[in-house]
Amino acid sequence: MKSKIYVLCVVLFLAGAAIITAGAMHAQQQQQPKDPIADNLFPPELIMQNQEAINLTEEQKSSLKIDLRQAQTKFTELQWQMEDQAEKMVALLKQPRPDEQQVLAQLDKVLNAEREIKREQIGLMIRIKNKLTPEQQSRLIAIRNKGR
């Protein structure tokens, strides 16, 4: 039971950095300087919540749904990989005298899985942005700025 809690804590810690909701982004923006990456991309939630305001076409909606379904499948697979690697790291840490090199090597595997999740997230948001017209992007920027 404790091992599951440890794994869950490690996974939640690592996944928390990778998964940002619109509300969390807003709170972070209030406390931190602007994020030039986030300022130039649009999270799927923002587009879904404002599809009428930006005049999203049926073709764009259909294409975005396909992209989101594919991404969700990939994210689930990557999340499983990351959790598996984190669980292995916790098992190493449970030893009375963990081998530093083994633990750090396992940490690299966990971080690589997290990196892949972040890479997929950015790739998805780039594909989404590329499906939007410049006018739609301008409207989303105005909507996002109004909410800040």
Mind explaining what this structure looks like?
The radius of gyration is 19 Å and the shape is elongated. The chain has 148 residues and is an all-alpha fold. Helix content is 78%, strand content 0%. Residues 4-22 have low confidence and may be disordered. It has 6 helices and no strands. The longest helix has 36 residues, at 58-93. The protein has helices at 2-18, 22-31, 44-49, 58-93, 100-131, 134-147. The chain has one domain (2-147). Helix 1 packs across helix 4 and helix 4 (58-93) packs antiparallel against helix 5 (100-131). The N and C termini lie far apart (42 Å).
Q: On the 0-100 scale, what is the average pLDDT?
A: 85
The percentage helix is over 70%
Please state roughly what percent of the residues sit in beta strands, choosing from under 5%, 5-15%, 15-25%, 25-35%, 35-45% or over 45%: under 5%
Tally of strands: 0
What is the succession of H and E elements?
HHHHHH
**Gross morphology:** elongated
Class derived from helix and strand content: mainly alpha
Main sheet record: none
User: How far is the N terminus from the C terminus?
Assistant: 42 Å
- Tally of helical segments: 6
Which residues sit in consecutive blocks of at least 5 with pLDDT less than 50?
4-22
- Global Rg: 19 Å
Give the domain tally: 1
